[in-house]
Every structure is written in C-alpha cells, then in structure tokens.
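Two proteins follow. First one:
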Amino acid sequence: MDAVEYTPRRDQLVYTFGGAAPVMTVQPGTVLKLWSEDAFNHALTSVDDLSSEKVDLRFVNPQTGPFYVAGAEPGDTLAIHIVDLTPARSWGASATIPFFGGLTSTDRTAFLQEPLPDTTWIYHVDTARQMVGFQARHTDFEVALPLEPMLGTIGVAPPGGEVRSSLVPERFGGNMDSPEVKAGTTVYLGVNVEGALFSIGDGHYRQGEGEACGTAVEGAMNSTIIVELIKGGAPAWPRLESDSHWMAVGSSRPMEDSWRIGQVEMVRWFEELFGLHQMDAYQLLTQTALAPIANAVDANYSVVIKAAKNLFPRAHAFDGIHDELRRRSQNL
C-alpha cells in the first residue's frame, strides 16, 4: 500500500467543506498519516485563556485537506477506514463559550439571561496509562478518565458548488461529533464532486455523547487512515461500520428530524443488507436500533442510529470492504 504523510502549515488549514483547492491527489487504497490542529486552533493553552478573548470564530475547527481521490465521481462511495488516532500533544482543552452549548441560551434558543461563565479546562494526557485527567476549577476534585480519541469532523465537499462551514454537520459528513468515529471504524460518504475532496479534523481526546457544553477534550491529533473508493452505491447520509455495529448519522434541526434521517438511512441499509421489503426493514429496525445523540450543540444536531451485528444473519456491507480494510490495517 502507498503511504503518504502530511502535516499542514498553519496557512494550509481550511475551515470549510467545499470551496478549497485540494492539497494533493491520492490513489484509492492509500494510507494517509495526517496531523490536525485542535478545534480552538491552538488558542487555549492554559486555564487563564478565555475563549471570548483568544478564540477567533472565523478560524475554528481547522481541517486537514482536502484530498482529491483519483477516480472518484458523483454517486460513488468513499470508504475511509480509521486505523489509529493518537494525541499529538500532552494536553487537551475544553471550554464553556458564551451563548454556546446545550445548557445555555443561544442565538437560536434565546432567553433573557447572562451567558454562563467563560471558563477553560486543561486536561493532561497520561500516554503510558492511556488516561486523561479532569481537574475541577472550583474545588480540588480530580479524576482520571480513559483516553478515547475520535474525530469530530470528517467529510467531503457538498453538492451543487456549496461551501459549508466546518462547524456544520450535514449529509456530506462534517462536524458530526460522534464518538463512533474512532479507530476501527469505516466511514462511508457519498461523493458529490469529482475527486470527493475529503478532509478531517477536530480531534477529541474523549467526549461524552451529546457534547453537552459544546466542546470535547479538544486536541491536536495524529491520524492514520486508509482511503478506498467504491464505484456507485452512494449513501444519502453518512454510514459507519465497526466490527460490532452498522450505523447511520442524521444531522438536522429539530433533533427529531436528525433521528428520522438516521432511521430512514438504516431502513435503506437493512433493505440492501438483507433483501428486505421497506416495511419489514422498518419493523425490524424498530425492535433493534439504538439512537445515541452525537451532538446537541452544533448548527445541526447529529443522532446516530446503530444496530448490533450479532442480532442478525451475517451480511457484508459494500461487498465486505470493512473487513478487508481491517485486515489491511493489521499489516501497518
């Protein structure tokens, strides 16, 4: 397998899906070893740094890419297998940003109240123990939490020449903030433009489902991924596959529409996997699906609909490409 390493300079970071020239062309099957900056763009480095003073909202969620995949055409499916995610720094940052987050008023959910206190937390990474440390700001409470790296953003260029902020999750992927986008997962994205133009970023050292305050343990990330191309078969919305689950991600507002989108995408997938009639797929999903909230804070809310493989007869999504990519990853 061809392997390519890429660490962007600061002036090469991009902040949109679509609208940016590709940094390079890669062949299907390429292994990419990538570095990405944290969501704050390295603006918060101590508890004394406040987001209202340090974070420039024009330059958040910087993306590494986009990459032009040779042979990718609209209607194809891009399969991105995440081999490894490793923190690129010994610390990560989280913050409550004024009028942003799940438990405060915002510009869209407006109330007559002051913003919550602008506060920053720094989490120190213990690589040897694979833990990350929470330290309370208002008491002496401390706790070590397992390191669970994930990518908050992964996506392709949208259709129709659209340019979308890297803060937005949609059918092109983007800022889904799902803890399921982790090592061992294959992400399936429908190609909208020639070359697909995919990028990644927004590394999280860990995050709870929903990302309640609006920010995870944000950190620079070293990512190893394998990029493959499936001709045709583009899913309408992002699909994920792990060794244990099939998943679909819906992103919209209100949140029940995100849930509906993910449910419909999984019904379609059940039809493909098992040859089911739509109504039978609908009924089967009703009795088997889980629906964790990925984010409840972004421009669109994201909900993951997931089904455990061990409940069903063995089936191979996209001709078994996930299993093949898992085998390849073990040789890296």
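Second one, unrelated to the first:
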Amino acid sequence: MKRTALVFMVLVFCCAVLFASGAKETAAASGKLKVALLLSGPANDQGWNAVAFEGLKAAEAKYGLETAYTEYVGIADGEAAFTDYASQGFDLVIGHGFQFGDPAVRVSAKFPKTNFMAIESSVYSQNAASYVMACEEAAYLMGILSASMSKTGKIGIVGGFEQPSIIKVVEAYKLGAKLVNPNITVYEVYISSFTDVALGKEAAISMADRGADVLSHVANQAGTGVIKAAEERGLLATGDSYDQNFIAPNTVIGSTIYSVPMLVLNAVEKVKNGNFVGGVFFLGMKEGVIDISGYNSFESKIPEATKKLIADTKASILNGSFTVPLIETRSGK
C-alpha cells in the first residue's frame, strides 16, 4: 500500500515538473517581454506619473508586453521595488524619476540579466541606463510666458524635492522670466513632496499673498494644488509634464510637455532587439522629447510679441544657436 502511494506521488511530481518546464519553454518561445514601472505617485496624477504610465501602456499595446507597475514608491523603497520585479524575472524595470537612479544601479549588480532604466537620473552600470530629458528647455519658455503675463512683476514656482532634476527646471524658469523682465521677483519654494496636493496649494497661496499673479510648478501630483490655488484666486498658472489646461481651462496659460512615452518605447525596443546598454542618454527638443503646449483659450489673450519671442527662442534651441543653461545647484537661497 505504501509502495503504491509512493509510486503515485513520484508520477505526480514528474508530471508537474514536465508541465512546469513546458510552460517556461512556451513563454520563452513566445518572446513576450515583461516590463515594470515604478512611480513616485499615482498613475493618474494628470502630469509626471501619468505620462510615464501612458508610455507603459503604449509599449504594452505595441509590443504585446506583460506589464506591471507600482505607485507611491518612496525614496527609501526604490531598491526593494527594483529587487522585487527583478526577482520575478522582469526583463526591464523602469524607475520614473531622479531618485530611482542609485537604487537601479545597486540592484543591477545583483541581477545582470535584467535591464534597468531611470528617467531623469545621471548614473549607470552595464545593464542600467539613465535617460535625461532637457526639461530646462521648456521651463525657460514657461519663464518667458509667465513673466510676460504678470501684471505685478511677481511670479512664483513650487518645486517638489530639492534635487537636480527639479532644481534645473526652477533655475531655467527664473532665467527665462528675467529675459523678459530683469527686475521681476520670482518666489520659489520646495515642499519636499511630489504627492501632497494640500501642501502644494498652501505654498502657492503664500506666494499669491505676496503679490505673485502667475503660479507655476514642477511638483508632480502636488502641483495640481498650485493650479487650484491660482484658479481660486483668479490668477494665472502654468502646467508641467502634460498639457494641464484641462484642470483649470481659464487659469492654465501653457504647460511644459515631456514625451516620456517615446523614452519608454525606445528602451523597450532596445531590450526586444537585444541591444539595450547602460549609459546616460540626453534628449531634448531636438529629439522631439521636450516641447510646450499650445495656449488653448489664451491664444488671443497672450500678446503677439510674447508668442513671437517664445517661438524664436524655441527655434534657436532647435537649431543649436542657443542652449538653455543647465543649473543643478539652487541659486538665490
């Protein structure tokens, strides 16, 4: 009786191994890639994280990927998140933000067969790459627009964390504003959050109380609080990462546009073709990754001279005759 049971168990085990092996071979033969995305906030934040999620879905549709994503990944949790997906056999794990760079490089050493990507970081390894967008180019143009539309000579910008990828946007914004009005006052606040909408709104209100009549942000989800503050006060605002005019159509005069889906599709294609390599890759307006939105309902309200200055400056960036300074250390503290 015992011997019969033992033989039965051995047969069951062998069948299980056979079918498991067959499943692995079928998956490998299908060539279906597994791609995961790490986000600092919600995928539907109407800005920074939303454009990355859009890229993941676009890649999924184009290449038939198996995808996964994790929202609200804090700075301290990046390494664990990368490790989790790598240990599950994902082919590419993307961290959307500067803070994901160092964790990606550390984990890449433990999983040499997994590809890692950090957007807006500046570090790399053999199988980890950083894709850096020239966000400062669009920020410079938003500074021009904001200063041109200000009646008080005072504007403000709210940043998320005080890190290079955010500082470069704030500093370029200030330079663009001073091109229009060398004497303009630009208030700046870093709120140490990408998700706290109330804190973003509070920072914007403090600027409005000091006379700022155009409010801008580079604070991801928290930045929607800045836009709402401007809307409630009857002021103007600019959006970030995405055309955010839909959030407050009578308030948002323009937005920076980051074509993150293009970056994601590019990385996935490289993994699929077997030529993904580590390194730091820089992309801006010339590559079609950075731009600004149209003016929507403000098209007729923005002076023609302002629109011409912005168009001419953009053309100069594109033809290489002007380069927006890259400043990653905060000035004017």
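SUMMARY FIELD: The radius of gyration is 23 Å. Residues 246 and 252 are 8 Å apart (CA to CA).
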